[in-house]
Amino acid sequence: MGENRGWVAVVDDEASVRKALSRVLRSAEYAVDTFATAEEFFSAKSAEGPKCAILDLAMPGIGGLEIQARIVAEKLDYGVVFLTGRGDIRSSVDAMKLGAVDFLTKPVDDALLFAAVDEALAQQSIELADRNRVADVRARFSELTNREREVLELIVTGKLNKQMAAELGISEKTVKAHRAQVMRKTHSGSLAMLVRLHMALQTE
Question: Which residue in 30, 51, 141, 149 has the fewest CB atoms around it within 10 Å?
Fold first, then answer.
């Protein structure tokens, strides 16, 4: 696809709107795909990485809010911007509650549109990085044995080796061996790092 400012999907049932938005966005060096329906949008293969979806609110069949709800539910890599000619306060509130970056009305000023798209792409970059980080941590922790997991849970509560040994009914030497494996498998260079990684999984 080459260098561009980001990938944008325009979902609008009006062909003239799709054509106009595509032309404006491409002129600003965004990569653009357009879709007339939600079905077209969800069935298409999208680019990897952060993306922005510009959604019309009212369309035949599945509308913009339903598309947004599915994007959120399936954790798809799209920041959402609404662009509609028939907006209302309740719809804009619902969209914002689901995480929409902006709720714009037609016709839209190009600068406002670009600012909203850039914000959506930036937010998605951050969220994608966070998800990748958690996935990496989960992969590390999945290598632990059941006993190592037990030791881990005691480590993060601040238990000493002697206390862990007594609680698990094993020797202190064995606890130390398991502790070393926990640190190695999770790539934790310190107790503080191990605790942070463990907390990342709990809050994900």
Answer: 149
Tell me phi and psi for residue 31, to 5 degrees.
-85, 130
DSSP-assigned letter for residue 83: E
> Domain tally for the chain?
2
Looking at residue 162, its amino acid is K
What is the DSSP-derived secondary structure letter of residue 4?
Answer: -
CATH for 191: 1.10.10.10
The verdict on residue 138 lying in a domain is: no
pLDDT band at 1 (very low <50, low <70, confident <90, very high): very low
Domain that holds residue 147: 143-203
Does the pTM exceed 0.85? no
Q: Is residue 167 scored above 70 in pLDDT? A: yes
Token pair 């000023």: residue: 109
Are 37 and 93 in the same domain? yes
Q: Which residues contact 125 (CB under 8 A, 6 or more apart)?
A: 49, 50
Sheet holding 31-35, edge to edge: 31-35, 7-11, 51-55, 78-84, 102-105
Do 112 and 56 sit in the same domain of this protein?
Answer: yes
Both 77 and 121 in one domain: the answer is: yes
Extract the tokens encoding 86. Answer: 């028939």
> What's the distance, Cα to Cα, between the start and end of the chain in Å?
32
Structure letter (DSSP) for residue 84: E
DSSP state of 35: E
Rg of the chain taking only CA atoms, in angstroms: 24
Q: Are residues 182 and 111 in the same domain?
A: no
Q: Answer whether 16's CB lies under 8 Å from 41's CB.
A: no
